[in-house]
Amino acid sequence: MFHVKHFKVVYYGRKIITAMSLITANNISKSFGDDDIFSSVSLSVPQKARIGFVGPNGSGKTTLLRILLGYETVDSGTVQRAKNLQIGYLPQQLRIEFSRTPKEECLSVFSDLYLIQEKMISLENKMGTDPDPEALLAEYGKLQDLFEEKGGYQFETKVKQVLEGLGLKNGEENRPWQQLSGGQRTRAYLAKVLLSDPDLLFLDEPTNHLDIYAIEWLEAFLKDFNGAVLMVSHDRYFLDQTVNTIWDLSPVFEIYHGNYSAYLMQREARYERQLAEFEAQQAFIEKEESYIRKNIEGQNTRQAQGRRTRLERMLRESKITKPRKEKTFHLRLKRAPAIRFCGRKMSGSVTRMTKKRCLHCRISA
Which stretches of the chain are assigned E, i.e. beta strand? Predict the structure, then answer.
């Protein structure tokens, strides 16, 4: 059952919401045919959350995101969203067409400011011909205060900063949408989502089409963002810089507190603990089965039957599954002490390195 009466995805404005969690899901399950995607998942997205969502490709991360958005339904469980919740969503595969340029699309986020501006201009013209403009001045003052409160004197500069931060500059921001590459369209749409200033950002692989400078700009933006952020990403460094909670769906849904590096350590510790519990239970099962085999037809038949009943109940109700060891890919490279170029060419040019990471390869430098 979905409670969506007050929910909508918007790309403009901002509303005040209550202090409750932005989204709460209780015991939700989803399957496609005979394939269970996930089951009995419970979670919440608090205000100002910084959540990274990880897991193998095909594990169901995007499906869960779309359920939380309300784009897909669950087979069981409930999803609740805060009243008047506004979400900015960047899908991994962008299939949206616009007739305007990236700059025009971003400016359209502030359509309410343009309406206020038009009213102010109209009042200015009237005041120039009205012999007693006091009433007009009072109305003009109220509009001017509202315009300033909503950032009317800074929004065009903000649009320029966000577009440039995401790498749309030197005329790219003024090119028609149809002339943009797939990566440019994704960056333009991301800029529009960020400028909408929603209560919650859902970002599915936001760094896919960003170079190192745009990624570092986005890291800084998200650190200062007042709303909550939930994002799917395979970029470990990016997650380390931007999140403090990790959701892991691989295939069981688990929540870890800390950034990605902390998650890796906690996951290993959890695996060792679960393995120890599994091995202890296996040893207990083996011991009980041995006793039952030896005594089921002897003098201790009644005790053996009782143990068998208890063992069968335990196997039905609380059998521990052997934990799965996640495989981690390790890349070890030797560091060239005085080299400032990675040597990998892209479009005929050598990719420059920064102090933190290679511009193209994302290799620690």
Answer: 2-3, 8-9, 23-32, 35-45, 50-54, 76-81, 86-90, 200-204, 228-232, 245-249, 253-257, 341-346, 349-352
pLDDT tens digits along 219-254:
999 999 999 999 999 999 999 999 999 999 987 899
Output b/e per residue, 310-330; b: 16+ Cβ within 10 A: ebeeeeeeeeeeebeeeeeee
Distance, in Å, from the CA atom of 101 to the CA atom of 190, rounded to the nearest integer, reads 14
Task: Give the contacts of 70 (CB within 8 A, at least 6 positions apart).
Answer: 2, 4, 7, 79, 81
Report which of 91, 115, 105 is spatially closest to residue 195, judged by C-alpha positions: 105
CA of residue 65 relative to chain centroid, distance = 8
**Spatial CB neighbours of 79, under 8 Å, sequence gap ≥ 6:** 2, 3, 23, 24, 25, 28, 67, 68, 70
- Output the CA–CA distances (angstroms, integers) from residue 183 to 3, 76, 100, 230, in the order listed: 35, 37, 17, 21
Please, which residues have CB within 8 angstroms of residue 74's CB and are 6 or more apart in sequence?
Answer: 2, 28, 29, 30, 67
Mean pLDDT of the region 14-21: 52
The rounded radius of gyration (Å) of the Cα atoms in the chain is: 28
Cβ–Cβ < 8 Å for 92, 204: yes
| CB 274, CB 281: distance < 8 Å | no
Please say whether the beta carbons of 244 and 258 come within 8 A.
yes
With beta carbons less than 8 A apart as the criterion, state whether 348 and 360 touch: no
Q: What are phi and psi of 249, to 5 degrees?
A: -120, 90
Q: Which residue has the tokens 């990790």?
A: 246
* Domain range summary for the chain, segments of one domain joined by +: 271-317, 330-365
Quick check: pTM over 0.85? no
What is the residue-wise DSSP string for 274-318? HHHHHHHHHHHHHHHHHHHHHHTTSTTHHHHHHHHHHHHHHHHH-
Using alpha carbons only, give the angle 118, 153, 173 rounded to the nearest 5 degrees: 90
Quick count: other Cβ atoms within 10 Å of Cβ 46?
14
Tokens of 299: 């003098």
- Is there a cis peptide before residue 251, judged by omega within 30 degrees of 0? yes
